[in-house]
Predict the 3D structure of the following.
Amino acid sequence: MSDTVGRRVRLVAGLLVLAELVVYVLVAQWIGVGWTILATLATSALGWVLLARQGTKALADLRERARTRRSPGAELGNAGLVAAGGLLMMLPGFIGDLVGLLCLLPGTRNLVRGALTRLVLARLPVGLRPPVRVESVRTAEVPRSGDVRTEGSGSSRLVIEGSVVEGEAVRGPDGGPLS
C-alpha cells in the first residue's frame, strides 16, 4: 500500500517540477532571462515578508487560544497553511509562488483550506468520514443538541433520522422520489 502511495507522490512531484520548468522557460522567453531571475528573487523576498507578517499573526492567534484554553481549531490550520505558503514562495518557481500566495493571504486561505478539506475527505475510507449534515426547510430550525419533537409538545421542530444506502433510490410513501 505505501509503495503505491510513494510512487504516486514521486509522480506528482516529478510532474510539478516539470510544470515549473516549463512555466519558467516560457516566462524567460516572454520577458527575458534577467527579468525572470529578478522576478524569482522578488517573489522569494515577498514570501519572506508575508511569512514574517502572517506567521507572526498566526502564532499570536495560537498563543491566545492556548492562553484562554480554547481549542486551536482554524488557527492551527492557518499556521500550517502560512508555513506551507511561505515555503512555497521561497522556493524558485512561479506555480509554487501562486499557490504559496494563496496560502499566505488571509482572504484566500479559507479557499485553500476548503479545497484541502474536500480532497482529504474524498480520500478517506467511508467508515472514517464525518457524518453528512443535510439542511432543508424542514430541518433548518433543529438545534445542534438533537432536540426532537414529540407528540403534543407544541414544538415546530422536526428531526427525521435515517440512513443513506448507496445504489438504491429513496422513495416516499407514494412511490415517488423524496423532496
